[in-house]
Amino acid sequence: MRHTEWLRRHGATAARILGVAAFYYGGAQLGLLQELVRGQVTPLWPPTGIALTALLLFGPRIWPGIALGAFLVNVSLGPSLSVVLAIVVGNTLGPLLSYRLLRRAGFRVELDRLRDAVALVFLGALTGMLVSAIIGSGVLVLSGALPTGNFWPTWAVWWTGDAMGVLVITPVLLLLAAARRPRWTGVRPLRLLEAALLAACTCAVTLLAVSSPMNLLYLVSPCLIWAAFRFQRAGAAPCALLVSTIAIVAAAGEWGPFAGHDLLTNMATLQAFNGITALTALLLSAVVTERRNTHEEIRRVCAQLAEALSRLDPGAAAEQWPPPRKQKPDGGG
User: Fold this and answer.
1) pTM of the prediction?
2) Which of 76, 130, 145, 242 is a plausible cystine mate for 140, CB 3.0–4.6 Å?
C-alpha cells in the first residue's frame, strides 16, 4: 500500500517535471523565432513565464523540469558544454529567485490585488531575471563567444526578454490554470460580441501603430484600458500578449517606427513599449478587480448585518438595509 502511494505521488511529480520541460522547450522554440543576438537572445523569452508559472502552481520541487528544458534548448546553441551548463544554472536560478521573492511578498496567483501585480512586475520580472541575464551574458563573454564590448547590449536584451516573458506570459498562464469550462448558456450574446470586438480592435490598432512610420504606439492604450475595465485580467492579459507579439514581429522585421535604427535603439523602443503595455494591463486590471471584490465584500457584510438585525427584531426584516439617506429639507428664505 505504501509502495503504491509512493509510486503515485512521485510518478505524478515526475510527470509534471517532464511536462514542464516539454512546455519550456516548446516555448523556447517559439521565442527563438525572433532571436536578435547570437541565435539565442530574444526580446521575449516565453520559458521564463512558463518556469515561474510552474513554480507558483506546483512548488519548487518542479525545478528539475526547468533545468532539463533549459539544457535541451541550449545544448545545440552553446559553444561548449561548460557554457551550456552555466546558462542552464542561470535559467534555473532566475525563476527560483523570482518564486522565493514572490512568496515572501505574499503573492497570490489570482492576481486580484494591486500588490500582487506590483510584486510580479518588480520582484518576479525585474529583480529575479537579473540572475539569468548576468550569468548568461557573462559566461558568453568569458568563453569568447561574444566580444567584451557586446556584454551590455546582450545583457540588456537578455534581461528585458526574460522580464517580458514573466510580465506577458505568466499572467496568461495563471489565467488559463484557473479557468473553468465556460457555461455558454449563462453568457450574454452582447458580452461575447464585445469580447470579439475588443480582440479585433486591439489587433487592428496595433497593426496600424507598428506599420506607420510615425510613432503611433500610444494608440494601443485605449484598447488595454477597455480590456481591463470590462473584462479585468481575463481581457487584459490576452490583449497584452497580443500587442507585445505584434510589436516584436514588427521590430524584428524593422517595420514602421522600428525602421532605420540600430539594434539597441529598436530594443529600447520595443521593450519600453512592451513594458508599458504589460504594466498598464496588469496594474489596471488588478485595481479594477480589487475594487470589485471590495464592493462585493461590503455588500456581503451588509447582508449579514441585515440578517442579524432581523433576528433581533423580526419587525425590521422588511426594512431596507442599509437604510436610505434622509433628504435634507430645503432651507427657507
Assistant:
1) 0.86
2) 145
